[in-house]
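ok trying again, last paste got cut off:
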Amino acid sequence: MTLSRRLLLRLTGAAALAAAGAPALAACSGDSEDPQEAPLPESWQREVMEPLTVPVPAGMSPFVQESGSTDFYWDRCWTSDTSAVPQGDLVLARLWGAGAEDKASAALGLASLMEIVGTDVTTGETQQVRGGSRQPLTSSTGSGAVWTLTGTPSTAVVVLFGPSVDDDMVSAFEAGLALADEPEPQAPAEGWQRRQAAGLWLLVGEDWNDIGQPEERNGAAPWSRAWTDRVEDSRLPGTVMAGDGLAGASLTEAVAGFLKDPGVTALREAAVSAFSNGSLEGQRVDFLWSGAGDYHGCLWLVRDGDVNRAVILLRWDDSDAFEQNRADAEAGLALV
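nice, full thing came through this time. structure:
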């Protein structure tokens, strides 16, 4: 399997929607009903990207926002028409964690929406809703709303827009939309933001995008969530993936399984060692990868009961900064 940013985006864009539950979340609608329990219209699904829960209307499929000149990319995108995205109904979501670049705004989201649909979109009066605010959206081709949600410490911008979107659809969407508060985390190292996945707190690049779950490989799904840089001139070009799908009755077995079938191009010069950061202890695998150069990577594995929890960091270049990157990422690992 040749792992590249473009391929990773394509794989995650085609991933099936996750309908897993999440801990109690703070509702964004005016009532007190837990949005995780609030009934959704028939055939709608819930996409959980901790700590954000996004309702996905029936008939929508994931798509990848094409790279361009923009410095704002949505984390997750769904459309009712993958063959003609600008003409379909859309759900767009972006999530920022502690330490993320300060670009969480409805204005940037609106500009990105207009790039996608190719027409001007105007906003109406801001209304306060539980968990944040909502602005109505109108254009010659559709309508909808944009929500700005503020939790502790995360922030999210979410859009529902399209030719079929009406007031009832906006209300149903809002009833299931939620951003959970999280424990106040330790401040991440400079250049990183703190996120959670697969039962772990971890660090990802401050300007990176959450691109969802990589597809299964050889019938297995070792990774449940991935992040990568999409903007030009990112200070940290790379990818982080997290998951609890590495098989093995022990860390030794899990490491052996990863080395036998890493799913990483041209993995070589692997060195296995123990690590401890004061919060977690486990096994670390340092390696080089890629056929394009001596790119550095690192895998961390911890045993949590009967579960192997893992995080992998890959640089997309042969930067001398990797040793510091590895130290920062390792220090940021903790169980949720």
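cool. The chain has a mean pLDDT of 88. Residues 8 and 129 are 35 Å apart (CA to CA).
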